[in-house]
Design brief:
Helix content: 40-55%
Number of helices: 15
Mean pLDDT: 95
Largest sheet: 7 strands, parallel
Structural class: alpha/beta
Strand content: 5-15%
Oligomer: single chain
Distance between the termini: 30 Å
Strand order of the largest sheet: 1-4-5-6-7-8-9
Order of helices and strands: HHHHEHEEHHEHHHEHEHEHEHEH
CATH topology: TIM Barrel
CATH class: Alpha Beta
Number of domains: 1
Length: 363
Amino acid sequence: MAIEDSNHLFLRACLRQPVNRTPVWIMRQAGRYLPEYRQVRAQAGDFLALCKNPELATTVTLQPVERFGRFGLDAAILFSDILVIPEAMGQNLRFSTGEGPLLEPPLTRAAEIEKLRRPDPETDLGFVMQAVDEIRRILNDRVPLIGFSGSPWTLATYMVEGGSSKTFSRIKGMLYDAPDTLHRLQDRLVDCVADYLNAQIRHGAQAVQIFDTWGGVLSPRDFREFSLTPMARIVERLDRIGSDGQRVPVILFAKGCGAFLEEMASTGCDVLGIDWTTDLGKARRRVGVSTALQGNMDPALLYASEDRIRQEVRELLEAFGPHPGHIFNLGHGMAPDMDPDRLAILLTAVAEESSRIHRDTKS
């Protein structure tokens, strides 16, 4: 089935094809804000065990689809974590309560980088591929499945810092004093991320997203060299035709990087995800017909009243206008203390308001 014949609004919008309403999915739509997710995580024992259990990862991937499908949730996203790649390359990964992820030992020298493995995604990350297979089987094409990976820059920050950071002192020290060492690490990550995403595509992922969470901490010069260029190399190497013969859209999401939309569009990606600090209407005019756009409501609006949520949805949809190529999303992800009922309100508002806009355009 060619993409032109797809009934999936999400896939059509990714390639800027006509839709009768704006499709929507939500970053971190499977997560701790859902009571059913918390139950499954408790069953798994800890977060990493949940990621590595294909059956349970499948369950939590599908939970938002089951809960919110009737409100207009138009895609599932694979439940996993970006740091399974560094672990498969040879770092020890654990999640510590109150501290977040810890990668040991932190990479501080070129010799440590040379010891990293290039994992085989079919074996070293086979639990992810098993989950993709099972999710596609159970979904039975109700909605498309999105696969994902962290970007080389974002993965490198965790690998060099040894976990989360507020100052990025180690990774920026390497960037400034040993750029060749950082380039070597990123060369390896480009290989690993491309392998990993292509494996997801082979197993049935119908779109893939590259998350660049920390690109916004870089200067313009360094963003281009250490974030944008590695992502562009990955996009070039991705298989763009999936296991079902459809084109597989590629989404780039770089938080805090709205100044670089035109340059990110030049990578050959199909969709640019933007956060809430970038004006959606201006972003559409900047990229023109080169890419679709994804986003970009401030996640904090989900703490607001129903009327305020609806107002923001309406304003964002009208800012984009009756043009092809918009996927509604938050400008980042769901937070653990958000009310699931607020998400249902958001999804309903997107369906109703976007249907009106598309209907009025045709009349």
